[in-house]
Write a sequence for this structure.
């Protein structure tokens, strides 16, 4: 998320929103990458070290290989592409 925030800033983006799936450490990482120090930075541990919260792969990392069928997005009714499909 921090890399995304920096790339977005370099493209002229002034505002980044988040949706479900973004958690506090994502927002904090973006703020810190952009030079801000939210109050939570001093008190919050590095949550990326906790089980279940690992770094996701970047588009560049994904582009270097063909996705496995389990990695491919599944869309449509009953395909797990969102809550209840379409």
């Amino acid at each position: 998320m921090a890399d995304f925030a920096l790339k977005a800033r370099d493209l002229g983006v002034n505002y980044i929103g988040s949706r479900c799936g973004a958690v506090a450490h994502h927002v904090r990482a973006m703020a810190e990458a952009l030079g801000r120090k939210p109050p939570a930075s001093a008190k919050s541990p590095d949550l990326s070290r906790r089980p279940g919260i690992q770094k996701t792969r970047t588009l560049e990392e994904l582009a270097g290989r063909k996705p496995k069928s389990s990695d491919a997005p599944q869309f449509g009714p009953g395909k797990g592409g969102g809550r209840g499909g379409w």
